[in-house]
Design goal:
single chain, about 625 residues, alpha+beta, nine-stranded mixed beta sheet, 17 helices, 31 strands, about 25% helix, about 20% strand, disordered N terminus, binds guanosine-5'-triphosphate, binds sulfopyruvate, binds manganese (II) ion
Length: about 625
């Protein structure tokens, strides 16, 4: 099966290699192509060069195939490549239950849960079972299809942070999205030479003949047998059955986070589910902040926020993933390994996120949003942006009427757009040395009990706060009800190795020579009152929280220690011209019964899920919190 030692390329020689030759490819790349081709048996092989002609050709193919359609409402939608894709309704989000990490030793991947308890911190599969899963699905799965080979870089080409991958896929939609989300093309192969790369094999799959899912040729997939596999010790990803987002654009969650976090652990850096933004204060001082919020909890919105506080400017470096390491001077530096946004569409409009609205009507592939009769897009939150007389077709392609019970756009519908289209992109966003980080923010969707903002007392307390993150489930994965889930560091679906070891890795940053550790904060934009209404206006007004954070790290005396950490002193928040009345007391209150419950949940979670792998530092922080809550 493993043909990497065979350099005769027997299989490639049997089928057309459309636009390249085995001689012109690095031999390790050739061996990988041979290995995948002999397994998947495609009709031909196409090496992507990343050119505009290639992109046009692929879009043309997808249009003919009915996978995408143009959006003529937007001027020159063909020239500017603005398209709408509709997936199979059974293939709309990441599938966490079918995502596995494979290591010889199970405990390298996940903490061993208490007996009788189902582990929630990732799924482990043995190397033998991983091979078996592949052999049950992949042989011949690309029959009659083209196998595309995508050389791509995560991070600016040539940056010391960057890593190269090769994605092999049978989906032209995936090639087009990878072209937006990463840096692809032949120059990547030149940079790679004969070095190692992250191996990423993807197929949309072929359902078994007795499959119950209705499959349309415009969106092939195999939802019943979808599986996403990772082998960290071989830097290998294998994904079958889904064409959607994090399941198929393998540079994103699979590489940049799961494989990335294991590489980062071994090399002494951090791969995190974090946005990166630049903020310039009224005095003209510019600082960089990273923030980890779970999927669909506000990263894209914060990353390109338009401040309502005068004098502030926010510029975007990245909206989903940060790779960070300390430099010689002890500054934590971050790059965004991505090249595009794969952002949540619903909720985006000219009030909530004007900069996103200015970004996404050029060179964009929308997926699973609704369409308007005048050839535009629509989603929940865009009501004010379309005229009342247009008709709407929902994400499944069915007629939709205003007030209907089902949503027009799928709640996890997305735009896929190059970062360079963003009007507030930070000039340093591609700096190969990364940008210096002063603040790390954690946050979640917490309807109850959690104040708008508080600061960790120190790094260790900050790591505890990250470990304790919980958030309401969203449509980004298969979870359907709005339960409050544990989502430590917003990484629960993305840890590439044992969460306990991950905590130790974070704690060990205090030992980095000269490390200037960023200050750590926790925020919650989503607290609600008894009537179920948000207490805080959010969006642009979140700049008021960033203002408080910056003034705090600049040494202003604006915080008091509390049960949970450092809370803003009353009157220390800038509420000037706030658009609506806010009950600040309720927004910052710490109800004793709520926090007692929270401590119970955390203790149970750490005991049941992390057990012996929980670092003592984190255990101590929990006991300190429990003590403080008793005194409330
Ligand atoms: P992923 O791409 O899945 O990782 O999501 P994300 O963290 O980038 O979330 P995003 O910024 O796309 O926001 C998700 C949803 O939350 C959208 O519907 C937003 O409109 C909404 N949202 C973002 N910020 C706020 C806020 O401050 N207040 C409120 N009420 N909603 C917000
Ligand atoms: C997320 O779920 O955190 C996303 C979308 O950013 S996906 O690319 O599907 O993972
Ligand atoms: Mn994300």
């Amino acid at each position: 099966k493993n043909l990497s030692t065979n350099n005769n390329y027997e299989y490639i020689r049997k089928i057309p290699l459309l636009n390249s030759s085995t001689e012109s490819l690095p031999s390790k790349v050739c061996s990988y192509i041979e290995e995948c081709a002999s397994l998947c048996c495609p009709k031909d092989i196409y090496i992507c060069d990343g050119s505009d002609t290639e992109y046009e050709h692929l879009l043309n193919f997808l249009e003919k195939n009915g996978t995408i359609s143009p959006l003529p409402k937007y001027e020159n939608c063909y020239d500017f490549n603005i398209w709408l894709a509709r997936t199979n309704p059974a293939d709309v989000a990441r599938v966490e239950k079918r995502t596995f990490i494979s290591t010889e030793c199970k405990r390298d991947t996940i903490p061993i849960p208490r007996e009788g308890v189902i582990g929630e911190l990732g799924n482990w599969i043995s190397p033998g079972d991983m091979d078996k899963a592949i052999l049950e699905r992949f042989p011949g799965c690309m029959k009659d299809r083209t196998m595309y080979v995508i050389p791509f870089s995560m991070g600016p080409v040539g940056s010391p942070f960057s890593k190269i991958g090769i994605e092999i896929t049978d989906s032209a939609y995936v090639v087009c999205c990878m072209r937006i989300m990463t840096r692809i093309g032949k120059n990547i192969l030149e940079t790679l030479g004969n070095d190692d790369f992250v191996k990423c094999l993807h197929s949309v799959g072929v359902p078994k003949s007795d499959s119950k899912v209705e499959i349309n040729s415009s969106w092939p997939c195999d939802p019943e047998r979808t599986i996403i596999l990772h082998r960290p010790d071989k830097n290998e990803i294998v994904s079958y059955g889904s064409g959607y987002g994090g399941n198929s654009l393998l540079g994103k969650k699979c590489f940049a986070l799961r494989i990335g976090s294991t590489i980062a652990k071994n090399e002494g850096w951090l791969a995190e589910h974090m946005l990166i933004l630049a903020i310039t204060d009224p005095k003209g001082r510019k600082r960089y902040i990273t923030a980890a919020f779970p999927s669909a909890c506000g990263k894209t919105n914060l990353a390109m926020l338009k401040p309502t506080l005068p004098g502030y400017k926010i510029e975007c470096v990245g909206d989903d993933i940060a790779w960070m390491r300390f430099d010689q001077e002890g500054r934590l530096r971050a790059i965004n390994p991505e090249n595009g946004f794969f952002g949540v569409a619903p909720g985006t409009n000219c009030i909530t996120n004007p900069n996103a609205m200015k970004t996404i009507f050029k060179n964009t592939i929308f997926t699973n949003v609704a369409a308007t009769s005048d050839g535009g897009v629509f989603w929940e939150g865009m009501e004010e942006e379309i005229s009342d007389d247009v008709e709407i077709t929902d994400w499944r392609g069915k007629k939709w009427t205003r007030g209907s019970k089902t949503p027009a756009a799928h709640p996890n519908s997305r735009f896929c757009t190059p970062i360079k289209e963003c009007p507030v992109i930070d000039p340093g966003w591609e700096d190969p040395a990364g940008v210096p980080i002063d603040v790390i923010i954690f946050g979640g969707r917490r309807p109850e009990g959690i104040p708008l903002v508080y600061q960790a007392r120190n790094w260790q307390h900050g790591v505890f706060i990250g470990a304790s993150m919980r958030s309401e489930a969203t449509a980004a994965a298969e979870h359907t009800d709005k339960v409050i889930m544990h989502d430590p560091f917003a990484m629960r679906p993305f840890f590439g190795y044992n969460f306990g070891h991950y905590l130790n890795h974070w704690l060990s940053m205090t030992k980095v020579k000269n490390a200037k550790l960023p200050a750590i904060f926790h925020v919650n934009w989503f607290r609600k009152n008894a009537d179920g209404q948000y207490l805080w206006p959010g969006f642009g007004d979140n700049s008021r929280v960033l203002d408080w954070i910056l003034r705090k790290i600049d040494g202003e005396n604006i915080a008091v220690d509390s049960t949970v950490g450092l809370l803003p002193k009353s009157e220390s928040f800038n509420l000037e011209n706030l658009s609506k009345d806010v009950n600040m007391e309720e927004l910052f209150s710490l109800p004793k019964s709520f926090w007692e419950k929270e401590v119970r949940h955390l203790r149970e979670y750490f005991d049941m899920q992390v057990g012996d792998d929980l670092p003592t530092d984190i255990r101590e922080e929990l006991e300190l919190l429990a003590c403080n809550v008793d005194k409330l």
